[in-house]
Amino acid sequence: MTNNEKVINNKKSTDSSKLFRYQAKFVAGAMNINQIPNFLLPEIAFIGKSNVGKSSLINTICNNKNLAKVSNIPGRTGQINFFNLADKLIIVDLPGYGFANVPISVKEQWEVLISYYLRNSNNLRLVNLLIDSRRGIKENDKKVAELLLKNKRSFQIIFTKFDKVTDCKNLTDEAQNFLTTLHYSCNVMYVSSRSKEGARELKASLAKCIIKPQRSKGR
């Protein structure tokens, strides 16, 4: 039994994960709020610190290593990228936060863009808050979680690069303590883009968003 199976109450991945057998494609990039599209499809977003492995994880669950551009240089996702999966789901890659080596004005522009999207998207069903397993939860991760709760956004915690650590107990304890301070409960998952551990369970959790009701507030 994997760690992820324990976290999600030992439920097996459902056939809904077959959704990710379809080919996802890049459909839009938004560098400012006026460029944010409305596809009238459920959206799932990925957010995390620069170099946390967002693009690699998106490529892993979509079985396409060239879908989202991967770079070892933090801060290379400078816009919101939208990927269409079988006209059933939109995967949203948000700019990384934290130590990106970009001018302050650019960072502020990204913050405005991300905040606007999180506040106004009526199609957003779930946000995946990515945390580097080697680093643990940092102060800026906490601020993002608070922003999500402020905007009444459902989210789950995804520990990335799990192949680089030997034990998840400390991470699990850290996550549960963190969630307790937020008075929030959610899935906590462990995923490796390299070994593919946890990818199947993650796909299943994302596919469920297709039937999840939309928020009343619209974009």
Characterization of this structure:
The chain is of the alpha/beta class and 219 residues long. It has one domain (3-7, 14-210): Rossmann fold (3-Layer(aba) Sandwich), CATH 3.40.50.300. The protein has helices spanning 3-7, 54-61, 104-120, 139-150, 169-182, 199-207, and strands spanning 24-30, 43-48, 80-85, 89-93, 124-132, 155-160, 188-190. The chain has a seven-stranded mixed sheet, with helices on both faces. Strand 6, helix 5 and strand 7 form a beta-alpha-beta unit. It is globular. The model is unreliable at 5-15 (pLDDT under 50).
What key phrases describe this protein's structure?
Rossmann fold, 7 strands, globular, magnesium, alpha/beta, seven-stranded mixed sheet, 219 residues
CATH homologous superfamily (4th level) name = P-loop containing nucleotide triphosphate hydrolases
Structural class: alpha/beta
- Topology-level CATH name: Rossmann fold
Task: Characterize the biggest β-sheet.
Answer: 7 strands, mixed
- Residue runs with pLDDT of under 50 for 5 or more positions: 5-15
Report how far the terminal alpha carbons are from each other: 41 Å
The second-level CATH architecture is 3-Layer(aba) Sandwich
Radius of gyration over C-alpha positions, nearest whole angstrom:
16 Å
% residues in beta strands: 15-25%
What's the overall geometry?
Answer: globular
Largest sheet: spatial strand order: 1-3-4-2-5-6-7
The mean pLDDT is: 85
Assembly state of the chains shown: single chain
- The DSSP helix count reads 6
